[in-house]
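Changelog-adjacent note: as of this version, every example in the card shows the full chain rather than a window. The one below runs 271 residues end to end.
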Amino acid sequence: MFEIALENKIAHLRLNRPERRNALSKEFWIEFPDTVRELGESGEYRVIVISGAGKDFCSGIDLEIFADRELLGTGTARQRDRLRTVVLRLQQCLDVLSRVRVPVIAAVQGACMGAGLDLVSACDIRFATASAYFVIQEINLGIMADLGTLQRLPGKMPDGIVRELAFTGEKLSAGRACELGFVNAVLDDDEKVVEKALETAALIAGKAPLAVSHSKDCLNYRADHSLADSLEFAASRQAFMLDPAEILASMKNSNPDFEDLHPGWKGFGED
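Full-length structure tokens:
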């Protein structure tokens, strides 16, 4: 499903079903959001990197999940209500990436399709190999993308391009995605793309954690609020998180030893 490496304040999650092109199994949807949430709440890890084993980053949802025909039933009001509830739950499983208080970096190789594109769309930074490509695969299966791609991509690429991809199901190459601003950089191969993601993660991990976390909050807030409201939000956040000691450490020390973020919910109610 996925494996985790924890080192130097960085959590590296690696999708690990190469024989299934890293299709997202039922177990993934159960365990992934809790894992991301726990990593963010721990306060110990300052960046999350997500990569995939094998030739492809992710081919989407494992279609074996839909072997249960009842899951897709829409013949009655209760069946339709069930399907809506399932879709909302799946959306929440990926929305955790945008809500977690640390930056998330995706390292993409090969195919990134369907729910895989939903996943990387929710990340903060994306690097890709020259051979990588992105597909809104749902339209090729006779359904509509419903886990976040259609909602997030218009904020990351021109609207007309997103519509073309959504209506045609055609591939978007990594090079073109980089030109459009969706991908931050294109690397030669799988090893180099992960290396670039981890190098960037290390650079971020060396910055003041409170400043990084609240910068992410401000960027997320701006996505669906006015400029005036966003400036007011930023002023309040700055007043809330500013720490003179961290300013001095950032200015005077090339390798400052910042205190970790608080552990959040972890330990709530415990002595």
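Structural remarks: The CA atoms of residues 144 and 217 lie 29 Å apart.
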